[in-house]
Design a protein that fits this description.
By secondary structure, this protein is mainly β. The protein has one helix spanning about 1-15, and strands spanning about 20-25, 30-35, 40-45, 50-55, 60-65, 70-75, 80-85, 90-95, 105-110, 115-120, 125-130, 135-140, 145-150, 155-160, 165-170, 175-180, 185-190, 195-200, 210-215, 230, 235-240, 245-250, 260-265, 270-275, 280-285, 290-295, 300-305, 310-315. The longest helix has 14 residues, at about 1-15.
């Protein structure tokens, strides 16, 4: 009986293995990880300094911010070939797709603009002037609003996706990096790297609800630099990558209390769930690896060596 259960577990694990893509900004490559074996199964050459990556809604294409090539590359998942480039504007770093996948909002750090591209016609719909050093980018679950963070201006810029105009600016702490909408879209979580905080903002009022701070014993305060954020769909947890502090903070997403700090690799940057949010993967730039966190036990299970300076993550579920 035990042998049968073990065999079924192995088969089930194989069938539900996710494929994880990791952008390595110093190697100009993508590492491909099988979540079943937690091993790199492929390395794909792409453009210069790949950072933000995301998948099309049908998982057939991967969008890649090739920052030093000033373009967004579109890779076919099956052939692993670059199909074409999108007109992204200069130095694309992060981007976000609308829910229907027809438009992509691209943050252009050097130009202080957000470029909106039609993904089907491959044309620029509009370039929107924002603050200095735009970085983070997100689109609300209902597709009505896009938000851009500007690192030097310290704003969240709220953009109406119909008019392509800025409708509000929310001041946050120094160097906002990343934005994450809650599943319902009623809240926005924004990390401020130099400020060392995460601001939770009400989507209707566009005002801050709470500011979350962090304190790790033995770690200097100026090393605690929040960047990537991931929220569980059930509203239980928020995970925050704390950059050179080399930890991921676990936050109760209802009370906003920090529950735990998990030690991972050096300069933890972005996060992604796999296996139906049972596991959380992190990119650790300086140590050149990916950490695997078990979400149920809130423990770090292992690390996976990838390329130099891993930055972004994208996951194809199976």
């Amino acid at each position: 009986m035990k042998k049968i259960v073990l065999a079924l577990t192995i088969i089930t694990s194989f069938l539900f293995a996710d494929t994880i893509y990791v952008s390595n900004e110093k190697d100009n490559t993508l590492s491909v990880i099988d979540s079943n074996t937690n091993k790199v199964i492929d390395t794909i050459n792409v453009g210069q300094r790949p950072r933000g990556i995301l998948l099309s809604k049908d998982y057939s294409k991967l969008y890649i911010c090739a920052s030093d090539d000033d373009t967004v590359q579109v890779m076919d998942i099956k052939s692993k070939k670059i199909l074409y480039n999108l007109p992204s504007g200069e130095d694309p770093e992060q981007f976000a797709l609308t829910p229907d996948g027809k438009e992509i909002y691209i943050s252009n750090e050097n130009d202080a603009i957000v470029t909106v591209v039609d993904t089907e016609n491959r044309t620029v719909l509009k370039q929107i002037d924002v603050g200095v050093e735009p970085e983070g980018m997100a689109v609300s679950p209902d597709g009505s609003v896009a938000i851009n963070t500007t690192e030097t201006s310290n704003f969240l810029h709220w953009i109406d996706t119909k008019t392509k105009e800025i409708i509000h600016n929310t001041l946050v702490d120094q160097r906002p990096r990343h934005i994450e909408f809650s599943k319902s879209g009623d809240k926005v979580w924004a990390s401020s790297e130099i400020g060392g905080t995460v601001m939770v903002v009400d989507s209707k009022t566009k005002e801050g609800v709470v500011k979350i701070t962090f304190k790790i014993p033995g770690i200097f305060k100026d090393l605690i630099q929040p960047v990537g954020i991931k929220l569980t769909r059930d509203g239980k947890y928020a995970f925050v990558a704390l950059g050179p502090a080399n930890h991921v903070a676990v936050i109760d997403a209802k009370t906003y209390k920090v529950l735990k700090y998990l030690l991972v690799g050096k300069r933890v940057w972005q996060l992604a769930f796999v296996h139906g949010e049972k596991k959380l993967y992190t990119t650790n730039g300086v140590s050149g690896d990916v950490s695997v966190i078990d979400v149920d036990s809130l423990k770090v299970e292992k690390s996976i060596k990838v390329g130099r300076y891993p930055w972004g993550l994208a996951v194809i579920p199976k």
